[in-house]
Amino acid sequence: MKNALSHLLVGFLWLLHWLPLPALRGLGWILGKTLYAVGRERRNVALINLRLCFPEKTEAEREILARRHFIAFSRAVLDRTLGWWASQERLERLIRVTGAEHLAVPDGKSLIILSPHFVGLDAAASRLSMLTTGCTVYSTQKNPVFDKVLYNGRQRFKEILLLSRQDGMRKIIKAKKQGLPFY
Fold it and tell me: How many Cβ atoms sit within 10 Å of the Cβ of residue 8?
């Protein structure tokens, strides 16, 4: 039953990738507002973290930041449907890359592409995977249906070596020694 529900949700997400970006963003806004309203535990975690990080801000200012984050996070989750299933041409129109010339790795050199761990991380990874091969770290998902969707979605364009975070650093170092760019 659990797998059937997971497959049903994946099918619904697949349908979403056909929507125009403004419609997808509108749905993300609604989802973010809803999750903030009903997700008491996650909302409290966000507010505590913001209180610790920004003690100089008022509670009202931190609440605004938390609400904005829930919306940005929800939009990013729905944006992933594009990375998983939209055409390469559509993604090239939506996601711009500057500095792609820096992705060319001279012989014997190692390239590490640093990116903050923010809500748009997967969009950048999808777009970069159209330009170069490489390796990156991912967290294995508890739900095998979603794990397969995430894994396959990250392998769509060029061969990307996906290293499980649960496996530790040894495989990352080995991939770097082989000359693979690391994102």
Answer: 11
CA–CA dist 129, 158 (Å, integer) = 6
123: nearest Cα among 169, 165, 159, 73: 73
Residues 102 and 178 in one domain: yes
Task: Tell me: do 73 and 103 sit in the same domain.
Answer: no
How distant, in Å, are the alpha carbons of 55, 63, 136, 139 from that of 125?
Answer: 33, 30, 9, 15
CB count within 10 Å of CB 67 equals 16
Token reading at 50: 């913001």
Our measurement of the distance from residue 114's CA atom to the centroid of its chain's CA atoms, rounded to an integer in Å, reads 14
Full-model pTM? 0.83
pLDDT tens, position by position, 57-99: 999 999 999 999 999 999 999 999 999 999 999 999 999 888 8
Note whether 66 and 125 are same-domain residues: no
Task: Print the domain residue range for 174.
Answer: 97-183
Instruction: Say if residue 34 is in the same domain as residue 108.
Output: no
Domain count, the chain: 2
